[in-house]
Amino acid sequence: MNQQLIAILVFAFLVLFIFSPFAALAGLMLVMLLASVFFLITSLLRVLVSGTNN
User: Fold this and answer.
1) What residues contact 15, with CB distance under 8 A and at least 6 apart?
2) Residue 8 has what pLDDT?
3) pLDDT tens digit string along 1-54?
4) Is the CB of residue 23 less than 8 Å from the CB of residue 17?
5) What are the b/e assignments for 13-44, b being 16+ CB within 10 Å?
């Protein structure tokens, strides 16, 4: 479950970085945001379905 909490925190930080006024690489950050959403959803679904991290 710790892996999912870390994924949620990373997702929150990426959202903050995208909306910050100093985000010079906003396009790259959007790509990273989409990738993190994908990995966050897959890891949460994996835990909900199987009940384990593996």
Assistant:
1) 33
2) 80
3) 677 788 888 888 877 777 766 656 666 777 777 888 888 888 888 888 887 665
4) yes
5) ebeeeeeeeeeeeeeebeebbeebeeeeeebe
Q: DSSP string covering 1-54, please? A: -HHHHHHHHHHHHHHHHHTSTT-TTHHHHHHHHHHHHHHHHHHHHHHHHHSS--
Evaluate whether 45 touches 27 at the Cβ level (below 8 Å): no
pTM over the 0.85 mark: no
Alpha-carbon gap, residue 10 to 53, rounded angstroms: 17
Spans of all domains in the chain: 2-50
CA 14 from chain centre, in angstroms, equals: 7
